[in-house]
Amino acid sequence: MTMDLRKLRIFVTIAETGSFTQAASHLRVAQPVLSYHMTALEQHLGVTLLTRNARGTAVTGSGRVFLTHATNILKSLEEAEAATRKGDNSVSGDVVVGLLNSIAISLTVPLLRACQDKHPSVRVRLVEGNSQTLRAGIETGEYDLAINLATVVREKIRPIAEEDFYLVGRPPHVTCSDDVPFRDLLAIPLILPSTQHGLRMLVEWSALQIDAQIRPLLEVDGISSVKALVRDDFGATIFSRSSLQNDDLARDLNARRIIDPPIRRRLVLHQQTGRPTTRAVSEVGRIVLQTIHDLASDGLWRHLD
């Protein structure tokens, strides 16, 4: 059997809609035609790609692997067709980029502005998430690229930036801009994320280095919620510089870099290895790296060459 594009489109449409009936309606073909092509495709591959149940159609483990490659093949074809029709070297296509919640506030605007300026025909969709959801999104093929923590991704990837963490709050909890030793945090009412959060893990690790234990006043997941509590004088918190806007510091919040030991993390540009990459994804990846480099001059992080 020939692995033709029609069978790929049929499989991807069924997987995305979760239903042979909906896929048939979307593709405007009879449902038996879909069943015929799916049977032929599964026989050719020697695996089961889809299973039917009372709620519709589910993708098997083998199906999820094949779906990632099939989706990228179709995306590459669409990109090639669009570029050929334009008759030039312009880049087009869809790119999904995952960003850590804590850096999205600083990275979203300059990144999207640069993408629109350089490649207006590329449709970039940004998705915020925590380190675990970003890793899963890359591994399942839901995201094309992700800025994530070096300690979370499974592959060995060269870090692109390193950032420090700061004690952030209002007087009397945070009264000046000098560096603050980690041990001083033990006497301050802290608002920190839950124990599964990447930042909390970094804080706990730093506490272990000085034989101390962190007992936060409150556990709250969500940057906006934590800022509101800090502004209402519940206590102080720990943020990376990229989690803060200049207005935060100019208006009412103080930030002191934590030292002895410092709290630091490294960021990587995560992309699934062994997976076809479209030109649009490659170009957006270059823009991400350049944007990270440019923002380093604003003091958000240190760029790592």
User: If you average the pLDDT, what whole number results?
Assistant: 88
Number of strands: 13
Rg is 24 Å
> Would you identify the CATH H-level superfamily of the largest domain?
Periplasmic binding protein-like II
Which stretches are poorly predicted, pLDDT < 50 over at least 5 residues?
none
Task: Indicate the structural class.
Answer: alpha/beta
Order of helices and strands: HHHEEHEHEHEEEEHEHEHEEHE
How much of the sequence lies in strands comes to 15-25%
Q: Count of DSSP helices?
A: 10
**Number of individual domains:** 3
Determine the N-to-C terminus distance: 48 Å
> What is the level 1 CATH name of the largest domain?
Alpha Beta
